[in-house]
What we know:
Blueprint: E1 2-6, H1 13-22, E2 26-30, H2 44-48, E3 53-56, H3 65-86, E4 90-96, H4 105-118, E5 124-129, H5 136-142, E6 144-145, E7 148-151, E8 155-156, H6 161-173, E9 187-190, E10 195-196, H7 197-208, E11 213-216, H8 228-231, E12 241-242, H9 247-254, H10 257-269
Helix pairs in contact: 1-6, 3-4, 5-7
Amino acid sequence: MRIAVAGATGRVGRHVVELLEGEGHDVVPISRSHGVDVVTGEGLAHALAGAEAIVDASSTATSDEKTATDFFLAATHNLQRTAASAGVRRIGVVSIIGIERFPSGYLKAKVSHEKAMLAGPVPVRILRAAQFHEFVAPLVDWGRDGQISRLPKMKTQLVAARTVAQALADLATDPRSAPAPAGAPPLEIAGPRPEILLDAARRLVARRGDAIRVEEGPSAAYPDGDGLYASGALLPGPGATLAGPTFDEWLDEEYPRERSASVRPEASSSR
């Protein structure tokens, strides 16, 4: 099957490409580095020619609501319009658990993304995911001020990006996956157990041997959120798919203790 993957070089998209190729599919990576721009539409018609399905894992790095909304609406318009002309049968879209509860910011922009996708001519199935294991490290960096990093006391159910990618790959290859049954709630996927982002970040920093202290507080990337983060607004519903690895299992894979021990003296000497 010929499947196009938008956002093919991102945290989820690169895993989707690898998994689909491993299953023997003809995968077309879509990203600016591959000469395809979903915002301008450049190269998109050629990329989607002959494709049966699309996985939309495209994203933007901004946390500004208007900028993010403009990105998603432009990308969605181009993907839907070009996909319909190319005869694409379905689109799988990755989104975020709990976005409907947030009044502003990037999460509100994702609501616009979902609505625009569902309004398009090509059938869509949306998979809402919890925050990724891989997102903890960038959040620590974005919240950093000198030797302190501030993060909100967010309740989440961290999930591996590759686990989400496998679910997206399954949606793309299953002809029964789109459209969703009328009135059906969005699909959700999360990790095996709830976590406090602050605690996970501290475990990550300790494992890496970083000379930085993680404290509770709003950050530029994740402001307070009107208490929604701490209230569990980002936790999955009862019908969610829960899949490993846990965050600690992921840490063991990405930051083996032997390697962590070898870098700790260097980190300590830089204090």
